[in-house]
Amino acid sequence: MKYPNVFEYLDYRAYLRDMFQYRKAQIRHFSYRYFSRKSGFRSPNFLKLVMDGLRNLSSESVGKVARGFDLKKQERDYFEFLVFMNQAASHEDKNHYYRKMMSLKGYKDIRKMEAAEYEYFSNWYYPVIREILMFGNRRHIPEQISGMLRPAVTVPEVKKALAVLEKIGLIRKNSQGQWEQNDRNLSTGAEVKSLVIANYHREMLRLAGESLERWPAKERDISALVLSVRKEHMEEIKKKTARFRKELLEMASEEEEPDQVLQVNIQVFPLAEKKQGGK
To answer: What is the per-residue pLDDT for 189?
Structure first.
């Protein structure tokens, strides 16, 4: 059985299950009771409860688990950050620990692409730059791109964005030196996917709020509705907004010479609901 590399995991409970099976295959008498004695846990089945999602780990118990599995310092650090990311209740805390995971060499060696995709969704101007590259002669340099972005983005930030976009395969240069877009689906693990999607929408909502001051009314459209509907109509509303998004995408795909990048936000979410059993 191959040694489980902790840097390949984004679910610490899955790692514990694989690591336990690995140690059991290597050491005949390795058991939950043996692990508890070695780690310093009083309960002989504590690890089993954690693996099954019935218990969480604390800073102290993370150290005990690391000792029980003989983890090296880098492995122990990554495992600790992974535990706290998985157990974090807030989006901010999940981001905090995921960035700590990304800072470790073991992560960088194995998950380079995933880190780049996380960065793409966590910076509002990455997808915008990808669209700007299709303007005019499609030979834009960082200095030109920097001057087009609102709010302002520095030239070094644009250069880094272009490097990331090329790395994850979303853009390339053709033989004539023109930028081209690649149609590639970005894919990350479920844990990271929830982070990057939330990061992206938070960034865009922040920019939407700032646009009230940044742009005159004739250059933006911000409106809202408050509706009273039956809960089962939510699915139909989502379908209608999906059709509208599709229409806008089809219209944009037919543009031959675009000269502006727009962000279109559509949000539908509950503000109040009747309590169960209410009249």
So the answer is: 66
